[in-house]
Specification:
By secondary structure, the chain is mainly β. The protein has one helix and 17 strands.
């Protein structure tokens, strides 16, 4: 990789949320990580393709030709970056889908947040240091995108940040070495596929594309979690064609690595060579066509708290 100036530039996170989310939402329960897609989608309905004229059913808007929930234009609330990201119940990338079944990207809707801060992010391989609370990853080496959350539709289940708002990062109590802020993701009561927090690697709020990570061996980050967690790599060959990917059947089978719970911060390196595909074997992990990276917490019904900090690609 060449040495270049790395910076975090402002972008409209609200728009990124809609695009990322709509980009990888499936239909109905077929969005679950291990489900077999195939349920019929009704044009114009939530998480299905828009009508030919670009319209959707009442209460929905067409984003990247996928119908998602109408933003509520609410404002940010709370402190310390515990606000939300995506929207209220749909996923964006395919891993699962927020709210109704799967869970990747974020759900649509919520308040638009237009970041105003610009900061240097350091190393070209750094994806995000979370020090600027604008909800976006560092802009470097062709990468750009925003953070989001999504969850399954278990009644009364909750997550923080709540889908639908912005995504400022949380101040780490007491700090961690030289780090002041990190992603904090918590929830309780999830009993289906669970919940995810993640980010797009090449989404500018208008156009979504894949990112070529084949020059790296994996990713490195710090984390601590009260629950086991899985890091998922969302590749084009597992994203349905209608959502911008290349998959025709048996989609949403992400490559990933299971990580144990840990109550202390640890530095974790995840090698692409150790990734295993969900539900099938014998596939090829196309690291040159990555859409998103997500951290998925399983739906055990128990309360969880996950922190992630200083994530970068690793050689």
């Amino acid at each position: 990789m060449t040495s270049t100036t790395v910076c975090k530039t402002p972008f409209n996170l609200g728009m990124v949320t809609l695009i990322v989310i709509s980009a990888f939402m499936g239909c109905g329960e077929s969005n679950k990580p291990n489900d077999k897609p195939g349920d019929a989608c009704t044009l114009g309905s939530e998480r299905c393709s828009c009508l030919p004229a670009g319209d959707c059913m009442p209460g929905l808007v067409c984003a990247s030709m996928i119908c998602v929930q109408q933003p509520n234009n609410g404002g940010l609330s709370g402190t310390g970056g515990t606000q939300g990201s995506p929207a209220n119940s749909t996923g964006g990338m395919p891993s699962s889908s927020g709210g109704s079944g799967g869970g990747s990207p974020a759900a649509a809707g919520g308040a638009s947040v237009t970041p105003t801060a610009t900061s240097a992010c350091g190393q070209p391989r750094l994806i995000d240091d979370m020090e600027v609370g604008d909800g976006g990853i560092c802009v470097a080496e062709g990468r750009k995108g925003g953070w989001y959350v999504a969850k399954d539709e278990t009644p009364s289940a909750t997550i923080t940040p709540m889908p639908g708002l912005g995504f400022p990062f949380t101040v780490i109590p007491g700090g961690r070495a030289n780090s002041k802020r990190a992603v904090r993701f918590s929830g309780t009561g999830l009993k289906d596929w669970g919940a995810v927090v993640g980010f797009g690697l090449n989404h500018d709020g208008v156009v979504r594309s894949t990112y070529n990570a084949s020059g790296f061996n994996g990713v490195k980050f710090f984390y601590k979690s009260s629950s086991a967690v899985r890091i998922n790599f969302l590749t084009a060959d597992q994203v349905p064609v209608v959502q911008g990917g290349k998959c025709a059947t048996a989609c949403y089978k992400w490559w990933g690595v299971d990580l144990p719970s840990t109550f202390d911060w640890i530095e974790q390196t995840v090698l692409f060579s150790k990734a295993v595909q969900q539900g099938i074997s014998g596939g090829v992990f196309h690291t040159n066509e990555l859409f998103n990276i997500e951290f998925q917490v399983p739906g055990t019904g128990q309360a969880f708290e996950l922190w992630v900090d200083d994530i970068s690609f690793a050689f």
